[in-house]
Sequence to fold (243 residues):
Amino acid sequence: MPRVRAIALLGRDWTELGPLALAELPDGGALALSRGARPKSYAHTDPNEDAALLVRTPLGALLAVADGFNGVAASELAIERTRERAEALIAASGEPFRAVLARIAAEVRAGLPARSRSRSCLVVAALRGESCELASLGDSNAFVAGDPNPLARQNALLLGSGEPLPSSRPELFHWRVPRAAGERLAVVSDGVTNFIDDLTRIPRILAESASDVDAARAIAELAFAGGAGDNVAVAVLAGRAGA
Fold:
């Protein structure tokens, strides 16, 4: 079995309204991505600016969703750089975890063309055993089966903005999340949370679904049922977060 297994879905590959892309790893974990059910009601550059990532290593796993705007450049860079540093994120906790995240943010900023207006939210969950390091830049979020509440809080820390992460205020974007053994967790873009009027339904889906791909599909379809006038991205994992 390969030491590192990874899958990603990019919005540039799914630009039609309606279809839902699904991808999964055979040993657990799944992604869902769609342009949405209805056209966006706001000005935008590309039809689908979201992206999702799942990485599994012998030590643990990483879930990430990047919610871009003003083009796909920032969200794709965010997923690419997060993939490159996934093993470091999974291995780290506390300040070292934030240092890796800050490096990703700096690399996205440096990788954008001069005067680019492309920006991206990014939510990352690094799972190792029963521990979870969660970071959210912007308004994407995360949910775990055992908690009815969203795990992250909205902030204005957007990738590509030129502002470094505030090392003196990690509580704005970084949390350690308790996770019971085998408890399913999801990270999602705001195309999910903005179109589901009762967010407690997401943890219930995570608890009740037969598989990770079923959970990812059900969360996306719940956003579709609410109108989904935005891009939809979901990453899900249950079970042991390791090889």
